[in-house]
Amino acid sequence: MNLYVSLFLAFFKIGLFGFGGGYAIVSLIEHETVEKYHWLTTSQFTDIMAISQATPGPMAINCATFVGYTATGGSIGGAALATFAVSLPAIILIGLVVIFLRKVRENKWIQAALSGIKPVTLGLFGAAALVLATPANFIDLYSYLLCAGAFIASLCRVNPVYLLAIGGLTGYFIY
Amino acid sequence: MIKLTLQIFITFFRIGCFTFGGGYAMIPIIEHHIVDKRGWMNEAEFMEMVAIAQSFPGPISLNVSLYTGYRKARWAGGAAAFLGITLPSFIIMMLIAMVFTNFQENETVEKVFKGIRPVVVAVIAGPLVRMAKIMKISWKTVWIPVATALVVWLAGWSPVWVLLTAAAGGIVWQRWKEGRA
């Protein structure tokens, strides 16, 4: 299939099924960009997650721009296409919501479907962590120590951007 | 109308420049701009909008921007809001992608990212317990997220199928409850 068509389809799908926000969408993006289309390696994908955390904007959009650019060998059109594709489901759905607001809010079947989706998004969040815990990302004992330390700090609500910065600094000195 | 569309673009462009970490952290910032500064909505309307934005797919910030844009200036407003909220991250990520593809093989960059990668895993895993509490996950329902994580991680299922199954499950559960009542 044409690269631009697969880019559009993959990111449209990510936008359409990106429930729960934040990291719940990570396992879906990973599934499409790493496992299915091999546009990125797991390590490259993890790096984008880290970059995304330290730059403004939602992860899904950041990822779409980055992958759209790199997968097409540096085309701005590819970046724009992927970014638009990931946003298109929201553009359509929110448009419909604004038109049919009351009916959507009061429809018990829509509410029932959404109540089923909610606990699953938490599981997808967990899957995101597990999927990224690969040998490529955990190269030695230091990796495990860094992960354990950052996990404890994260439980204590330390800002993730600081944790990533400390991880980077530590990496620079020990490797 | 043109002035309003332009205002929508500028407001969301500014919000888009400062939405680090995504999602929930930025809701107070958006509220400040839309409710306090522009007066485009009152508090109750804003809360309703956030509830809708959270339950629909797509990033919360994008959903909230689109909703506000459509409400204030229909399709032109929606387009202005979309461009405003995505343009800052688009520009920044483009620049990073250009630089990163050149520096990826760089030894220093590789060292730094070797340290960062395991931290990314921790940063994702850290908020899980807090989120479970917010979502009111109990011992009776905890199997759902656990099973989800396992089939996606070990069996390599696409999250799309898990989400569709869950939506169907929610509907079946509702019917069953009604059948009993």
| Sheet of most strands of chain B | none
Beta-strand portion of chain A reads under 5%
Structural class of chain B comes to mainly alpha
Name the chain pair whose interface involves the most residues.
Answer: A-B, 103 and 89 residues
Strand content of chain B: under 5%
Number of strands of chain A: 0
Number of helices of chain A: 9
Write down the domain tally of chain B. Answer: 2
Short description:
The complex is a heterodimer of chains A (175) and B (181). Chain A is mostly helical and 175 residues long.
Describe this structure in words.
- With 175 residues, chain A is mainly α.
- Chain A is 78% helix and 0% strand.
- Chain A has helices at residues 3-16, 26-36, 42-54, 59-71, 76-99, 101-106, 108-132, 141-155, 160-174.
- The mean pLDDT of chain A is 89.
Features of the shown structure:
heterodimer; A: 175 residues; mainly alpha; 0% strand; globular; B: 181 residues; 79% helix; flat
Topology record:
The complex is a heterodimer of chains A (175) and B (181).
Chain A: H1 3-16, H2 26-36, H3 42-54, H4 59-71, H5 76-99, H6 101-106, H7 108-132, H8 141-155, H9 160-174
Helix pairs in contact in A: 1-4, 1-5, 2-7, 3-4, 4-5
Chain B: H1 2-17, H2 27-37, H3 43-55, H4 60-103, H5 107-125, H6 128-134, H7 143-153, H8 159-180
Helix pairs in contact in B: 1-4, 3-4
